[in-house]
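Tutorial handout. Part one gives the primary structure; part two gives the three-dimensional structure as tokens.
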Amino acid sequence: MTGINGFIGKRLAEHLVKHGVKIKALVRNKQLKSLDPNIEYIYGDLLHKGTLPPLLNNCDIFINCAAEIKNQELMFDINVESTRKLLNLARKHFICYGTKIHWIQLSSVGAYGMGNEGDNSIRRITESSPHSPDNMYERTKTLADELIMEAGLSSYITYTLLRPSAVFGTSMPNNSLRQLIKVVKSKYFFYIGDGNGILNYIHVDDVCNAIIKCLFNEAAKNQIFNLSNDCSQQDLITSIARLSGIRSPSLHINRTILLLATKIIEPFLRLPLTRSRIRSLTSKNFYSTDKIEKILNFKPEYKLTDRISDLF
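Part two.
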């Protein structure tokens, strides 16, 4: 696997070891030593122009958790070109041993984009929905998905593309939920528009459990699965207010007016509430998990409204 030292990768490794899976993990830092006998470190750098070490030898499954989410200048090289390099290893593995690696790719629901900015209706997104990524991260992750599906058509790998929404948990690097808690606690929170936005999050343990479902299940091969456990914004805010011991906020501000105000002010001041954040808070995208429930009998267990207390 790659990305073992990341937020999801670290938690996934814990789950895999509990299930008796032996792991070979690609890491950059040669000073790192594995403290678990079930985890072997292979040293290499996805950005290095040279060849990668034989990471896939004696492996049945490859799990790609590596991704660049912050530095736009590195996104294409890490998210796309490194996928191309790793697929080349999988092709060589097939040529040498005649066996296909099963590739599990941690992708993103960002492949489908946010939808039309003025559209305020509920948008139900399935795995067959068209791709319309909005930013560099989402575009590069979608390009990587396409490379993997092409490799699947060439029949030297099988694959499962897992597309989670925003992944949350106690050690999450994304501070959006913590910032939301802070604003509600400070009693500065207000709803934008009707307040009926849909929040798209999935717990890290649900992501790990979904990956484990895909390990040896033939039904998971050459499939794309969305992963999300959506909830309404009002339900989450009510939970945060209750946990904080305060009254649930009731103020609403017109969405159109707020978007116009931020458009005017943003060029001059750095605002905590950006236009993209307003779109995110008021979007009504619903990611269907019917497919993974039907094919793999998997359903997310951890609701955001129940587990938000972990971030207090």
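Part three, for discussion. The radius of gyration is 21 Å. The mean pLDDT is 93.
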